[in-house]
Amino acid sequence: MAQHEHVRVAVIGSGFGGLGAAVRLRREGITDFVVLERADSVGGTWRDNSYPGCACDVPSHLYSFSFAPNPEWPRTFSGQEHIRAYLEHVADTFGLRPHLRLGHEVTIMRWEREELHWVIETANGARFTADVVVSATGPLSDPKTPDIPGLADFPGKVFHSARWDHDADLTGKRVAVIGTGASAIQIVPAIQPKVGSLTLFQRTPPWVMPRMDRKISGAERWLHRALPATGTARRGLLWGIRELQVSAFTKHPGELGLVERIAKANMARAIKDPELRAKLTPSYRIGCKRILLSSAYYPALAQPNVDVVASGLAEVRGSTLVASDGTETEVDAIIFGTGFHVTDMPIAERVVGADGITLTESWKDGMQALRGASAAGFPNWMTIIGPNTGLGNSSMILMIESQLNYMADYLRQLNVLGGRVALDARTSAVGSWNRRVQERMKRTVWNTGGCNSWYLDASGRNTTVWPGTTAEFRKATRSVDLSEYEVVRIPKRAAAAKEPAAGKAVAEEVGG
Ligand SMILES: Cc1cc2nc3c(=O)[nH]c(=O)nc-3n(C[C@H](O)[C@H](O)[C@H](O)COP(=O)(O)OP(=O)(O)OC[C@H]3O[C@@H](n4cnc5c(N)ncnc54)[C@H](O)[C@@H]3O)c2cc1C
Questions:
Q1: Residue 395 CB–ligand 1 contact under 6 Å
Q2: Atom of ligand 1 nearest to the CA of 384
Q3: Which of 177, 357, 397, 476 has the fewest CB atoms found within 10 Å of its own CB?
């Protein structure tokens, strides 16, 4: 018999977004909820990315929950294992374990308009119904590996950075790293000393700034423990500095020229060969793609066992990799640092809304959601860090916490409206929000900087980044404006009669 449980809220995912939602629900006095997670433990990004050198690139005191400060961060930019342990600790501290349903991969969630609830099925055969779904499946959780001719016949190890094969011994091996994004530039210096040779396939060079990473001293940690306000002040300072940088990204990309000079100096310190330096120098404005932080990347590339192929991987012939420029390299292992399905997030295929269409179909012209959360035609469904909530320079936890405020108010509004009720974002409200976002996007470095990045979808529209400060987003998500939603109810008569035809939900007009 399939398991069937009804809950007030089903949260999908147990990364920062899902765990944050769970804590917030408990704080709002809601305990009737489950967290459905496909993996066997919590942690999301920080469970899945266990590659050598994996660490955050936003300082830990800002890249953590404001409601769960950690005075014990060991480094300014903590490593994956410490962030993962922090999330496990959050799950314990806030009593989240009883709500977790690990090993539950959501395969489909379908809105039942006659019942005003979501039906959720998981790969292990479980079935849930929920009044509200909070989808926190993460924008960077499904790895993307390009479809390269001949790859299936490659005789050696092949894996993606987010699914590191810890059984693969790379010692003395000829290794290819494909891609030069945030993960690849952490992997390269971490594995370069042990591999026999490393060939980096670079389609586009990244801008890389020095990384001011250091051990956090025992005295600092003692101070943050003894006087928690010092930790809060530290977080505030880290946040404020990043807020001040936003206008350069969003309104005055010309000001970023100074930052380019620092990045070039970072490169020049380590790369003495003019030919290699030319290969590694970007031809687009800094900030257009994510600015990467590393003080170890360029020194690693300067080592004699490293070769940079300034071209993408085009084909695999046996153990020979052929680049688009014709360069051939024989290797024993291939590591893809090729990012994630971001603008085509797989979960969207698995959400079927009120009109019987999937979110993917609804988003055929590009992802869009009201205040980064609600999609029209998908009542009582919201996403945490949905479309246009990404940041180029600050902590995603700030955006997650803003959306948790929105989620909490959404649930309060449902309670105030009372009875069996749902909120469905109006198409006009979603459109108007999206037009404002896209209008602001026009002047940003992501749209004008002359690069092709993963921030843009197939049609070239930026559906990922938030074109403002985190404070602006906090304000925009402080509360739910009911005029942006249709209130959907089951008529009392119909609900009582329980006749399928009469049970159809009706929309109520709500003013103001
Ligand atoms: C290597 C790396 C480094 C990063 N560094 C930073 C940084 O320094 N600063 C920063 O701000 N951001 C960083 N990010 C972005 C990071 O993803 C976010 O900061 C944040 O961790 C996202 O949290 P999340 O909970 O939304 O998503 P995730 O952490 O991705 O969690 C999503 C969860 O949903 C689960 N899930 C997905 N689909 C299903 C399904 N169908 N059914 C059930 N469960 C499902 C996944 O298994 C996962 O556990 C980094 C990302 C990566 C990949």
A1: yes
A2: 26
A3: 357
Reported as a pLDDT band with limits 50, 70 and 90, residue 502 is very low
Q: How many domains does the chain have?
A: 2
The CA–CA distances, whole Å, from 113 to 165, 259, 358, 379 equal: 44, 53, 15, 9
**Measured in angstroms, how far is the CA atom of residue 18 from the centroid of ligand 1?**
10
Q: Is the CB of 34 under 6 A from ligand 1?
A: no
| Type of residue found at 420 | R
Is residue 411 within 8 A of residue 453, CB to CB? The reply is no
Both tokens assigned to 105 = 């991969």
Closest Cα to atom 30 of ligand 1: 138
Report which ligand 1 atom has the smallest distance to the Cα of 186: 1
Give me ligand 1 centre to Cα 337, in Å: 16
Which residue, among 332, 307, 330, has the nearest Cα to 320 in the 3D structure? 330
Are 485 and 424 contacting, i.e. CB atoms less than 8 angstroms apart? Answer: yes
Q: Which H helix or E strand runs over 248?
A: helix 228-250
Distance 356 CA to ligand 1 centre (A): 28
Q: Give start and end residues of each alpha helix (H) in 305-444.
A: 359-362, 396-417, 427-441
Asked whether residue 259 falls in the same domain as residue 317, the answer is yes
Same domain? For 88 and 177 the reply is no
C-beta separation of 119 from 370 below 8 A: no
CA atoms within 13 Å, Cβ hemisphere of 144 = 16
The domain boundary residue, chosen from 313, 336, 359:
336
Structural domain boundaries enclosing 465? 4-142+341-484
Q: Is 108 in the pocket of ligand 1 (CB under 6 A)?
A: no
Judge whether residue 314 has pLDDT over 50: yes
Probe target for ligand 1 pocket from 99, 105, 141, with the most ligand atoms within 8 Å of CB? 141
Q: pLDDT for 368-410, tens place per residue? A: 999 999 999 999 999 999 999 999 899 999 999 999 999 999 9
Which CATH number fits the domain that encloses residue 200?
3.50.50.60
Closest ligand 1 atom, residue 122 Cα = 42
| Tens of pLDDT, residues 189-217 | 999 999 999 999 999 999 999 999 999 99
Residue 26 and residue 115 in one domain: yes
